[in-house]
Amino acid sequence: MPLNVKPSAAGTPAPGARPRRQVAALLVALAVSWAVSLLGSLPIRINAGGWYAMANKAPWTPPAWMFGSAWLVLYVAMAVAAWLVWRQRRFPRRAALRVYGGLLLLNLSWPLTFFGLYPIMGSAALWLAMLLIAVHAALATVTVLRFGPISTAAGVLMLPYVSWLVFSASLNLYAAVNN
Known about the structure:
The chain has helices at 19-47, 51-54, 64-87, 94-116, 118-121, 123-150, 152-178. The protein is built from 7 helices and no strands.
């Protein structure tokens, strides 16, 4: 290593990282997160006024507006976390970003199962969604554990997501048992 170049501190990009590339990467991470949010919300929008409006919901179910607000914040935090991991050059990060990609796919599959399949499969769809959300929460925890050593801030940014999934799992379980 040349004597005039110091290694990056943990959590910082490599020396010489271009600011425009950093901004572009952050915008891509936000766009991917937004796309997942939009696609995942379609079965919710289609069925929210249908069977779900009439379903037995947990007494601790928050108002509908709170779900959208919470997910907006969570998707931004997830995108920033992924960007922080992507921009870190001192540690291998490909495996962590693959886990994150799997997390996004699970994020798409849960509303399709819970909201989209219930009219076809009935309560079996809710139990399948329960299985998916349990796997989802486990993979989100793995993401925290993969992101944390690469970027502490990224690991911390993913913690509210894990918490929300556990909370959502309680709502899913109640719906599966009572519908």
